[in-house]
């Protein structure tokens, strides 16, 4: 998933779960059935799982632009400088 | 949200948090229910009234209990626990309560009932103060929820009196 896809997943997950919760409470209260409320919420959680967890293609619409290999050769990786060993002598 | 495991964890945690909120709201909604329970208890007969070998008074009663507790049931009620207690005042204690009978009511349909029964639990006193004693019979109930807060209340019925002598 690219960055835009991850942001979309997070927003979708939160919104879908909150909406399932609200709908569950409202329907359960008006039908006087605790069982209905729990079933609606469980259904909402399953739906959210199916939408947000697998790596669907629409989460990859803004792929990262990696550097071209020819561009990378023009700017070589800096070398690690080894510090010279100091000799300690007793005076 | 970069990996499958990360997303699954985030979803599960948030789903359980929302579930906790849902249960809290369900429990809070119980405050808005209109409860109008009613009851009547009649003492049909005092079977016997004796002083036990250890010196404590004991009474056996036949009770006729009528109750209409349907309005106590809400969508968030699992069961209602009801019990009848005899309450009196003695020289030693300001309030003595003895539980005489109890029942678990699992559904609204069973909440309107009429029962004629002798006391399920022994009506004992600490001492021998019960002769000629005025006492109240109180129906207590606990509304046990599916989630959240349990509500308890009672109806006090007074005017009952034990006989002046042992029989």
From TrEMBL, chain A:
**Compartments reported by the entry:** Endoplasmic reticulum membrane
Identify its protein family. Answer: Belongs to the SPCS1 family.
**Protein name, entry field:** Signal peptidase complex subunit 1
User: Which source organism?
Assistant: Cardamine amara subsp. amara
What's a Pfam family in this record?
Answer: SPC12
Instruction: Look up the record and report any one GO term of the cellular component aspect.
Output: endoplasmic reticulum membrane
UniProt keyword terms in alphabetical order: Endoplasmic reticulum, Membrane, Transmembrane, Transmembrane helix
- Just give the chief location class: endoplasmic reticulum
Q: What is the lineage of its organism?
A: Eukaryota, Viridiplantae, Streptophyta, Embryophyta, Tracheophyta
Q: Where are the transmembrane segments?
A: 12-31, 38-59
Automatic annotation (TrEMBL), chain B:
Q: Where in the cell is it found?
A: Endoplasmic reticulum membrane
- What are the annotated GO cellular component locations? signal peptidase complex
Q: Give the record's membrane topology.
A: Single-pass type II membrane protein
BP terms from Gene Ontology: signal peptide processing
**Swiss-Prot/TrEMBL keywords:** Endoplasmic reticulum, Membrane, Signal-anchor, Transmembrane, Transmembrane helix
* Family, as annotated: Belongs to the SPCS3 family.
User: Any idea what job this protein has?
Assistant: Essential component of the signal peptidase complex (SPC) which catalyzes the cleavage of N-terminal signal sequences from nascent proteins as they are translocated into the lumen of the endoplasmic reticulum. Essential for the SPC catalytic activity, possibly by stabilizing and positioning the active center of the complex close to the lumenal surface.
Q: What protein is this chain from?
A: Signal peptidase complex subunit 3
The organism is: Cardamine amara subsp. amara
